[in-house]
Hints:
Layout: H1 15-27, H2 30-59, E1 70-71, H3 73-101, H4 104-110, H5 114-148, E2 152-153, H6 156-184, H7 187-206, H8 211-219, H9 221-230, H10 238-262
Parallel strand pairs: 1-2
Helix pairs in contact: 1-5, 2-3, 2-5, 3-5, 3-6, 3-7, 5-6, 5-10, 6-7, 6-9, 6-10, 7-8, 7-9, 8-9, 9-10
Amino acid sequence: xxxxxxxxxxxxxxxxxxxxxxxxxxxxxxxxxxxxxxxxxxxxxxxxxxxxxxxxxxxxxxxxxxxxxxxxxxxxxxxxxxxxxxxxxxxxxxxxxxxxxxxxxxxxxxxxxxxxxxxxxxxxxxxxxxxxxxxxxxxxxxxxxxxxxxxxxxxxxxxxxxxxxxxxxxxxxxxxxxxxxxxxxxxxxxxxxxxxxxxxxxxxxxxxxxxxxxxxxxxxxxxxxxxxxxxxxxxxxxxxxxxxxxxxxxxxxxxxxxxxxxxxx
Length: 265
């Protein structure tokens, strides 16, 4: 007499399955691809405008002494001042689209350990956002450099540094936005908050003559990002500014995790 042995394989709802699910969701919706196309077009147009303007300034002003060329990586840095909000929207939609459609309930059923939901999205977004920022930086640098013509400085070492800085910044800005998306939940609300924290408030405070407000701008994610990208040492060094960005990204994700754990979907 033989005994049949039946092996029951339990469906996995752990982190590995959650990461695979988030990866699939990111690339099977049109909004992700439309966002990338829009960002590429906007980046190209901004780079052209910056490049032609720079060339015009060089050719129509009288300079004394040697005229230094403009680093093409600087075009990428300038373009990210505006394009960063499009990249933030890319990261945000991975969260807010689920709340708008109600599919967040299915996500939480498949991944009942709620912190894994946030962690899985962060794991998927981190390399994607980095490559996204790198792609946009390359497009901006090449397009702007060609538009500048003879006034473009194509120093490879400086270009690589600028491109890596741009990619790192948009990655952290995107993760911060994804974190606050779990708090606000709506697309319009999250995009408004990202726009304020990444662009509007830091820009307004940085122009103040009050030193305390300048410091406050530098401690916000957008202000820290601009200091990091520009290499400015006032009021914080690029290294400290980068650390501020990491803190904001981590704080956003941790707060989003806490909110998701406590609230009903």
